[in-house]
Amino acid sequence: MNRLECLEKAIECVCGDRAESYGDVEDNFKTIAAFWSNYLGVDVGGRDVAAMMILLKVARTKACKEHNDNWVDAAGYAACGAEMDKVK
């Protein structure tokens, strides 16, 4: 997979029909942040969720170099994280 293919697949994931299954990404990240905040005992925001999910994908990439979907997912989380600044 080249970089364009990776980004195109990430666009399909982030801008596709996932909202129908999981709801709006901002709302979903807020929910995840609230759960993580409660569990960890620290304030976690939507940007943190995006960053931590990227780190999860980095760890998976280190463990298994054959799955290109980790790169696609990381690109998608980066795009979602870029929008988290506008979420209050």
Low-pLDDT segments, ≥5 res: none
- What is the number of E strands? 0
**Silhouette:** globular
Rg, rounded, reads 14 Å
SSE layout and pairing:
Blueprint (H helix, E strand, L loop, with lengths): L2 H13 L2 H5 L2 H16 L5 H18 L5 H15 L5
Describe the structure in brief.
By secondary structure, the chain is mainly alpha-helical. It has 5 helices and no strands.
Question: Would you give an account of this structure?
Answer:
By secondary structure, the chain is mostly helical. The chain is globular, with a radius of gyration of 14 Å. Helices cover 76% and strands 0% of the residues. Helix 3 crosses helix 4. It is built from five helices and no strands.
Key traits:
single chain; mainly alpha; 76% helix
